[in-house]
Amino acid sequence: MSQADIVFHNTLSGKKETFVPGNPEHVTVYVCGPTVYSYVHIGNGRPAVIFDVLTRLLRTRYPQVSYVSNITDIDDKINAAAAANGEEIATLAERYAQAYRQDVSALGVLAPDVVPKATHHIAEIIDMIETLIAKGHAYASADHVLFHVPSDGAYGTLAKRTLEDMIDGARVEVAGYKKDPKDFVLWKPSSDEQPGWHSPWGRGRPGWHIECSAMVKKHLGDSIDIHGGGSDLTFPHHENEAAQSRCANDDPSYVRYWLHNGMLHLGTEKMSKSLGNVLTIRALLESHSSEVLRYALLSGQYRSSLTWSDELLAQARASLDSLYQSLRDATAETSQTSADMQGLKQADYPDTVVAALCDDLNTPRALAAMHELATQLRRATNGEEKTAALQQLLAGGWLLGLLHQNAEDYFTQGQPGDAATLSADEIEALIARRKAARADGDYAGADRIRDELLTAGIELEDSREGTRWRKI
RNA sequence: GGCUGGGUGGCAGAGUGGUUAUGCAGCGGACUGCAACUCCGUUAACGCCGGUUCGAUUCCGACCUCAGCCUCCA
User: Fold this and answer.
1) Would you identify the CATH topology of the domain A287-412?
2) What is the model's pTM?
3) CB-to-strand B under 7 Å, chain A 66-85
4) Which one of A9, A39, A100, A459 has the fewest CB atoms closer than 10 angstroms to its CB?
5) pLDDT tens across A319-345, in order?
6) Does nucleic acid strand B have an atom less than 7 angstroms from the CB of A141?
7) In the CATH scheme, what is the homologous superfamily, with its name and number, of domain A7-270?
8) Which residue is nearest to nucleotide B38 (CA to C1')?
9) A77-126 per-position pLDDT tens digit
10) Cβ A339 to strand B below 7 Å
11) What SS3 string covers chain A?
12) What is the CA A422 to C1' B6 distance in angstroms?
């Protein structure tokens, strides 16, 4: 019984294509991470979460998946930030690199197999630049090394624009040392204050794009299956990266599937560091649970833009609550969470969720399927049905990186920013007093206690088994 | 200006040439001392104008409009 093909929208063709790995025994994935000179914003979290779901899916199907996601730790903005607060450049970059790992880890993102950094790959970068020069695709000029764009016949095929298109509204600086205005920097000289490494072209540092080419080659090879990143990286970053790699590697199929996620918006505009309209993950975690943030990120298909707002977060929380509510009813006797569902057989993951994800990571459809599974679980009339539905729901939760908390804890521990101030013991004591009042027929007194709790952010749910509570 | 991708019910967001997801919210009912939870039922949509078709939200064309990239950006 063969299962559904995985289909991805490939930026290269502009179409959905069936995913056929170069080597089904070993699938290779590379995703561009952030440049670390400040805390990352929630927009940076989107590719981290999306491609986390991608690798979770791939790993249910392929025996080996190598996932590499870099951190850019050499960049003029890093230099500027370090200079601004009198800090060592490497210290600042490392501090924010660690913060990035913490932030995306909080979003439930599993660590990639390798998280390479540009500064640890200077030798590989220099090697690749030398190769490009030797093959006539790059040249040294005025202490710089430049990639000669017209030397690559395939240039522009990713971003789908011709050289003529680019000359039209070009805002490129016309540096005198460039043979062609579109030529871009592979290596540039450093002043004494700037970080630099010795090279055949003097002390200097790499340009932006070459690090990814070098790190992909080192960790995954000359040709890989999937390369992901934000849609704003398509041009020039990925176009340039692809040009470098295919010219240096003699392999025209540098990347078989290019996947680009859409941007997060704040209001009508893209969330962007340069515009300054960003919400850091760190700040959001002060008033929202990390899982709500992840749910919100998954509530839109990854290629579309997603407008980030308080309403989105409120709806994400309400929706996640409803999934946990069905788990709470079902998991009284088990401590299982989705974290226990890693590494199941393919067939043990729910078909509907898998099918949605196989269709170009359609996470909104996958979430819809999760809610349908939750409904099945609530409707289950016997233990067998209930167990089966529970397993399905939790297994789907694993694929999406949701439902890893114990349902009871989810509701009683509350979330950052909740109004609740009472301790569990105080709440239980009030519930006991209310129970006594009800037993005495003192409904007015019982309701007073319930209202008091509600004011304190605690909602009660009565059932035959007793009264339970949740923070709201 | 060039290139790319959108405009779906109160909100978010899938999908489809005819039976019209899912979540939140709303409405009616059941349950409850009353609520909450849960269950049952239910309202409501496809930017605009043409075309193709027995039939289009779905295909084609024009238009309006929004966003992204063309500079650092996930």
Assistant:
1) Isoleucyl-tRNA Synthetase; Domain 1 (1.10.730)
2) 0.96
3) 72, 75, 77
4) A459
5) 999 999 999 988 777 889 999 999 999
6) no
7) HUPs (3.40.50.620)
8) A378
9) 999 999 999 999 999 999 999 999 999 999 999 999 999 999 999 999 99
10) no
11) CCCCCCEEEECCCCEEEECCCCCCCCEEEEECCCECCCCCEHHHHHHHHHHHHHHHHHHCCCCCEEEEECEECCCHHHHHHHHHCCCCHHHHHHHHHHHHHHHHHHCCCCCCCECCEHHHCHHHHHHHHHHHHHCCCEEEECCEEEECHHHCCCCCCCCCCCHHHHHCCCCCCCCCCCCCCCCEEEEEECCCCCCCECCCCCCEEECCCHHHHHHHHHHCCCCEEEEEEEHHHHHHHHHHHHHHHHHHHCCCCCEEEEEEECCEEECCEECCCCCCCCCEHHHHCCCCCHHHHHHHHHCCCCCCCEECCHHHHHHHHHHHHHHHHHHHHHCCCCCCCHHHHCCCCHHHCCHHHHHHHHECCCHHHHHHHHHHHHHHHHHCCCHHHHHHHHHHHHHHHHHHCCCCCCHHHHHHHCCCCCCCCCCHHHHHHHHHHHHHHHHCCCHHHHHHHHHHHHHCCEEEEEECCEEEEEEC
12) 47
